[in-house]
Amino acid sequence: MELPKTQKAAIKQGSGDTSTIVVKEIPVPQPGPDQILVKINYSGLCASDKSLLKDEWGSGFGMAPQTEGIAGHEGAGVVVAVGSNVQDLWQIGNRAGIKWIASICRRCEFCTNGSDECHCPKQINSGLTIQGTFQEYAVTDAHYATRLPDGVKDEEAGPIMCGGLTAYVACKRSKVQPGQWIVIPGAGGGLGHFGVQYARAMGMRVIAIDGGDAKRDLCLSLGAEKFIDFTTTADIQAEVMKITTYGTHGVIVFSAARAGYEQAPHLLRPNGTMVCVGLPNDMTIVAGAHPITMAMKRLNVVGSVVGTLKEAEECLDFTARGLVHPILTHGGLEDIDKFCKDMDSGKLIGRAVIKIAS
Q: Domain Enoyl reductase (ER): where (predicted)?
C-alpha cells in the first residue's frame, strides 16, 4: 500500500514544568528488516508520559535524543509495512499494539528464564529511548509487538498496553487470593480503575480509596465492594480495620504520592503484601515501614512494573471476554498538555486516550 511521506506528531518543546507539546509535520519512518510500521489509531496517555514530558524524574531518566521529543507507549493500530525478516510473523492489515517495552534482546538470562524479560538490560522503551506512539505512524520490533485480539477495540487496547498491563500484573504480584481483601488507593484514576476491575475479575474483594462522589460512583460501578472517601474520612486505617477486622491482605500503591506510600503498610494484616507501582519524582519517598513493624507483622513489600509479552495477552483477554473495560476520556494530539494538567489536579477520571490517525 502507498504510504504518505509526512505525518502529524506531538513533539515536546522546552524542558521542565514549562515544557509544552506542539503538533508538527514530520517524515513517516520506514521499518527495518526486523520491524513493522504501525498506523497508530489510538494511544493512551500514561502518568509516565507526563513525567517524561515534564522532566519530573530529572536528567538521569529522561527522553533520549533519538526520541526527537515524541513520547507515548500505549499505541494500538494496524500494520501498514513489514520488514523483510519478519514477513512470516506479520502481514499488512494485522492489528498490533506497542508497549512501554518495545524490544528486548531475547538472549540474556532475564529474557530466557521465562518470567523476567521486563528486566532485560538491553531493552528499548517507547517514548524513552525510541520515538513513541504520539505520532500517526510508529515503527516497533516485530518480535515484541502485541497482536490485538478480536473483541478489543483500538481505543481500549491502547491504554491496556501499559495501564491495563501494569494494573493486572500488580494484582498478580499482590498474591491476594479469591475472597481476600485488597485495598486500592487512587482507585478512580488511570491505573486504579483498571486495578479495581482486574482485582474483582480475579475474585478479590476490593476496597477503593479516592475522593469525591464521581470517583465513588465510578469505583462502585466497576466492582469495588467498599469505598473510602479520603476527603471525608478522618482515619482511613481505622476504617479499613473496621471493614476487614485484621487489615487487608494486600494494598497496591498506584499513586506516586508520599501519603500513599506512608499509609500502605499500616493497612495490612500480618503477612500482607504492599505492591509498589507509582514512581515519585521526590527521591526522599521510600516504601515500607519501621523495621519493628515490618518484622513483627511479617510484611511483604514488592515492586511491580508493566508485564511480559505473555501477560499482555492475558490482560487483553479479560477485555475480549467482557470483564474489564477502560473508562476513557477522549482527545487529540493537541489535548495532551491539557490532559497532563488534569492528571496533576486529580480531575482526570479513568484513562485519557488520544485519537491519532484521522
A: 16-354
**Verdict on whether the full-model pTM lies above 0.90:** yes
Strand positions, DSSP E, 32-190:
35-45, 75-82, 95-98, 101-103, 124-125, 137-141, 146-147, 181-185
At position 102, the amino acid (one-letter code) is A
15-29 pLDDT per residue, tens: 998 999 999 999 999
User: CA-to-CA distance for 342 and 239, rounded, in angstroms?
Assistant: 29
CATH class of 6-162+307-355: alpha beta
Q: pLDDT (tens digit, 9 = 90+) per residue, 90-119?
A: 999 999 999 999 999 999 999 999 888 999
Domain 165-303 grouped into CATH 1.10.10.10: no
Distance CA 114, CA 23 (A): 40
- Nine cell digits for residue 187: 482507585
Residues 6+ apart with CB under 8 A from 99: 73, 74, 126, 144, 146, 161, 162, 165, 306, 312
SS3 category, 164: helix
